[in-house]
Amino acid sequence: MRLGFFTDTFLPQRNGVVTSVLSFGSELVRRGHEVHVFCPKTRVKEINGIRVYSYPAVRFRPYPEFRIAVPQGKDRVPPLDLVHSHSPFTMGFFGIRVAKHHGLPRVASFHTLLTEYLRYAFRVGAPLMKFFTWEFCRVFYNWQHRVITPSRTLKRVLREKGIKRPIEVVPNGIDTSFYRPHPKHLARKKLGLGNERVFLSLGRLSYEKKVDVVIRAMKRVNGKLVVCGRGPHASRLKELVRRERLSRKVVFHGFVREELKPLYYSAADALVVASTSETQGVVMLEAMACGTPVIGARALAIPEIVKPRRNGLLFEPDNTDELAEMLDSFEPTEAMSTNARRTASEYSVDRMVSKLVKLYRRLIRT
């Protein structure tokens, strides 16, 4: 199959959408399919056999990491059998134009709850903007032949919000041969970490990820929190640590290269996720594949993956007292680690791409 991935975010950015595009795309290429990525301007021309076509773009001031592409030439794309849009902005709509022009089936993934990002663009009028954002999503996704969500929870949300097109649940897969356990003592030695209890927060440092909830909880925890990532909220989080005098308990390791992630996961006693906007939470599966339990907020899609006392724990969203008590008393067990790896294996990229291929073939046949 000749597949077109249309996305408004791509390398050098690193986020859940980019991870999904790369993991699915690379495995599809390995299976002999052609994958073409259409995205905002990037220096990348090819990666893992994926061909990249990029278009002029301007930075989105409220969220500088995001760029708005200005694509043209719907009749000048390589031959495709199917269009798969990964975001509902200019590249996503370009995907619709390409599909209509060439008479191709079109499918779109709903990766992100856009309403969680309104604070970056609109300081006032949030309720009204939430209404218009969902109206915008209804228009975009109801123009598709199929909609893909990474979790059952998100499928229910989309139904409630008026998305009427057929919805398929295809979670984002992870490479379980890459994400695997390393001996904890060796991982900590390589990363310069000691023998104390270590908790990990890894991902984009932005408001909706609520890393501040974890930092505040650390005031009453005997242990260390390692914060990895970068983003628009980084300076505020560092100021919070200074203000609360937590510099001995909370350390920032900045952006972590992909090849080092298994070491960080393996070094931690648990990954902590306080976000209430996770549509799946790939980092949780990456951690579990390394045998690391997850302590997460009981919100949106997190409880689909985290099962209390089996592969992790759940706390009420924004409840720093409950989280602090949970962290301070947490002791990982071998059974929890084994169950975490078993959970991750159910989401291997091999399994998920097989589901995706079946969907593509059904659409192309019809």
According to DSSP, the number of beta strands is 16
Output the number of helix runs: 13
Determine the N-to-C terminus distance: 15 Å
Question: What is the highest CATH level, the class of the largest domain?
Answer: Alpha Beta
Envelope shape: globular
Could you report the average pLDDT, rounded to the nearest whole number? 95
CATH superfamily of the largest domain: Glycogen Phosphorylase B
Proportion of strand residues:
15-25%
Give helix % range: 25-40%
CATH architecture classification name of the largest domain: 3-Layer(aba) Sandwich
What do we call the CATH topology of the largest domain?
Rossmann fold
Low-confidence stretches: none
Structural domain tally: 2
Strand order of the largest sheet: 3-4-2-1-7-8-9-10
Biggest beta-sheet profile: 8 strands, mixed
Radius of gyration: 21 Å
Order of helices and strands: EHEEEEEEHEHEHEHEHEHEHEHEHEHHH
Structural class: alpha/beta
Summarize the structure.
The chain is built from 13 helices and 16 strands. The chain is an alpha/beta fold and 366 residues long.
Task: Explain what you see.
With 366 residues, this protein is of the alpha/beta class. The protein folds into two domains: 2-173 and 348-365, Glycogen Phosphorylase B (Rossmann fold, 3-Layer(aba) Sandwich); 184-345, 3-Layer(aba) Sandwich (Rossmann fold). The chain has 13 helices and 16 strands. It has helices at residues 16-30, 90-102, 126-142, 152-160, 184-191, 211-217, 234-243, 261-267, 282-289, 302-305, 320-329, 334-345, 349-365, and strands at residues 2-6, 34-40, 46-47, 50-55, 57-59, 67-69, 82-85, 106-109, 146-149, 167-169, 198-202, 224-228, 250-254, 270-273, 294-297, 312-315. The chain has an eight-stranded mixed β-sheet, sandwiched between helices. The protein has a six-stranded parallel β-sheet with strand order 13-12-11-14-15-16, with helices on both faces. A two-stranded antiparallel ribbon has the order 5-6. Strand 7 (82-85), helix 2 (90-102) and strand 8 form a beta-alpha-beta unit. It is globular and about 60 Å long.
